[in-house]
Amino acid sequence: MVKKIIIPLIVVVAIIAAIQLFHKEKPFYDLKLEKLRQEYAIKPVPSVEHSKFKVLQADFETPQEVTEACLTCHTEVHKEIMGSSHWNWERIAYVEGRGIRAIGKKNLLNNFCIGSQTNEQACAKCHIGFGMNNDHFDFKNARNVDCMVCHDNSEEYQKGTSMAGYPDRSVNLSKVAQSVGQPTKNNCGACHFYSGGGNNVKHGDLEAALIATTRDVDVHMAANGLNMSCVDCHTAENHVMKGKLYSVSADNINRLNCEDCHTNMPHFNQMLNRHTAKVACQTCHIPTYAKENATKMEWNWSDAGKLKDGEPYMENDSLGNHTYMSIKGSFKWARNIQPDYLWFNGTADHYMMGDTIEEIPVQMNKLFGAHDDPNSKIIPVKIHVGDQIYDKKYNILIQPKLFAEEKGDSAYWKDFDWDQASEAGMNRLGYPYSGEYGFVRTEMYWPVNHMVAPKEQSVSCAECHTRSSGRLEKLTGFYLPGRDNNPILDGIGRWLIILALGGVIVHAAIRIFYSLSNKEYETEIIDYENQNNQKQ
Q1: Dihedral sign, Cα of residue 323, residue 325, residue 330, residue 333
Q2: Residue range 320-346: average pLDDT?
Q3: 229: number of Cβ within 10 Å
Q4: What are phi and psi of 315, to 5 degrees?
Q5: Distance, CA of 527 to CA of 167 (rounded, Å)
Q6: Contacts for 169-177 with beta carbons within 8 Å, 24 or more apart?
Q7: DSSP percent split of the chain into helix, strand, coil, nearest 5
Q8: In this structure, which of 241, 256, 364, 414 has its CB flanked by the most CB atoms within 10 Å?
Q9: What is the pTM of this model?
Q10: Within a 13 Å sphere around the CA of 412, how many CA atoms are in the beta-carbon half?
Q11: Which of 381, 442, 448 is nearest to 207 (CA)?
């Protein structure tokens, strides 16, 4: 009886195993994805040849003359640009706990070059205007709008170093004016790739390699793939770009999300689709950042000021990255980095000038979010740490004056005197300075949104759902299957397994016992019948 059950069962299991082993799934195509690929593979063809416009064939002596020429056709565009955050370096936003505030690069601090205030002439290299050399820049003067920095397609336009936003003197303004078109990766990258003083310094996921890269680095911008430009995703309405950087932004408005193109159900696997309710696409699809060139992970201003023979100097690592600069201090770099992870709902707070230091490390930007918040998702971030100068008496961060063209103007990068630089900077901003300074640890969070890997390289389930050393090991406050355990539930589960196995064993034993008993009973009956037959 037992053999009659076990043998067919073994045969069935073997057949199922063989089918699974040799069965190959038929290839399928994600039609939604194919439609997107087709859409972005078709590059727009300009309908206007600017080199044929007579007004652009002049010998321009100043960049303002180019702007005036642009406005003869694009008569109202300057109003759109002058209403954008690229121009104003600030947005009006609601900040939790602070109310309506105007915040942006114009007035916020960071733990890289600290801040633009008092240093406008140097920082304006990444402003879309001309002539920002102090805090008296006229934001209402349309002549100072720089059309070329975003629309030059000749790849020859560049801002001059510490020239208050004016183009480098080598730029042929006439050639550039006749070569304008839709913004390219070069246009956007001139500022966003090199922010913080060098390639990939700040973001970690935005760098010059993206101009001509492969799918392993970024599936969207790969030259051997769709070769998408920044503006394919960061579209604009009235020159207001979609998307925002949370080092200088606070509200959950006009954000750019992967779901805008891919929807919130991009997978055929419904289990994966359920993840999108609490896990951002980037979390699984950007397993590492800084894939090509290293990014700064630590900046220590307290080490600045060392001189050799009375002159500033710098030291580099084997890859050419600065590990020390007299004017800025010491740095630590890394590449191919696994992100950290946070809950984020699209809103943030920032350290604002004059805020009392209440926690160390000081949070330069605090990303809000929690597991219980229905608007929050797990996102990948780069965490940049370091130290920067603060006032010991007033317990506030200091905005020092860093830049000047000549020595003797209290700028730290020329005179290497923290006391003078602090006094000059705080006086300009209207804040007190006690004369007692020190250095305090700070942290800053940079969401990782670029360098999307091919799907074959996406984060595997086991990298998060594991007992120890998983990607989400530090993200607590919620139950993660495979990582977390509950003693009561685990105990109940163990006993249920034991009882189930015990039930199977007892059931099998009873069946075997009755089977053997039936055989003995059948044997006795046969013997009895044989005996009766013999007597007859």
Answers
A1: negative
A2: 98
A3: 19
A4: -125, 145
A5: 114
A6: 173/60, 173/61, 173/62, 173/63, 173/65, 173/66, 173/148, 174/56, 174/57, 174/58, 174/59, 174/60, 176/66, 176/148, 176/152, 177/50, 177/56, 177/60, 177/66, 177/69, 177/70, 177/148
A7: 35, 15, 50
A8: 364
A9: 0.86
A10: 27
A11: 448
Three-state SS at 420: helix
Encode pLDDT of 125-163 as tens digits: 999 999 999 999 999 999 999 999 999 999 999 999 999
Q: Where are the extended beta strands (E) located within 169-312?
A: 236-237, 240-241, 295-300
The tokens of 486 are what? 């509950």
- Cα-Cα-Cα-Cα torsion 471, 476, 480, 485, nearest 10 degrees, comes to 110
How confident is the prediction for the chain on average, in pLDDT?
A: 92
Residue type, 440: V
CA atoms within 13 A on the CB side of 296: 30
337 bridge partner residues: 289
Average of per-residue pLDDT across 480-509: 87
The tokens 């304006």 sit on which residue? 124
277-305: string of b/e by CB count within 10 Å (b at 16+)? eebbbbbbbbbbbbbbbbbbbbbbbbbbe
Residue 473 to residue 466: CA distance in whole angstroms: 9
φ and ψ at residue 456, rounded to 5 degrees: -65, -20
Query: What's the mean pLDDT in 306-311?
Result: 96
∠ CA 338-340-345, nearest 5°, is 135
In which band, very low, low, confident or very high, does the pLDDT at 21 lie, cut at 50, 70 and 90?
Answer: low
30, two tokens: 């994600």
Average pLDDT over residues 108-133: 96
The interaxial angle of helices 2-22 and 487-535, nearest 10 deg, is 130
Q: Which two tokens stand for residue 55?
A: 């007004």
Q: How many residues does the chain have?
A: 536
The closest alpha carbon to 147, from 157, 139, 137, belongs to 157
Query: What pLDDT is stored for residue 5 in this prediction?
Result: 59
Dihedral Cα 297, 301, 305, 306, nearest 10 deg: -40
pLDDT grade, residue 485 (50/70/90)?
A: confident
pLDDT band at 510 (very low <50, low <70, confident <90, very high): confident
Q: Which secondary structure element, helix H or strand E, spans residue 444, and what is its range?
A: strand 437-447
CA distance 437 to 395: 9
Beta carbons of 363 and 443 less than 8 angstroms apart: yes
